[in-house]
Amino acid sequence: MIYLNFTDLNEETQERLIASSKEDVKEKYGKDIMNYTTKHNTNLDKMLDEEALRNLYSYKYVFNI
C-alpha cells in the first residue's frame, strides 16, 4: 500500500510513484520484457515506461486528507 497526503499529488510525487513502479516492473518482468524487446526490435525504455504506468493501477492507495 502507498500512503499519500491529498496535497502531496504534485509532479515530484508522481515521478516518485512511476520510478517505484518501474523498479517493480523490472523486478517482476525484467527478463521477459528484455526478451520481448530484443525479439521485436522495440525500445526497452519506452516499454518499461508503458508497463510501469499499467502497474500503477495495481497499487492500493491510502489518502490522508
Automatic annotation (TrEMBL):
Q: This chain belongs to which protein, by name? A: Uncharacterized protein
Name its species.
Christiangramia antarctica
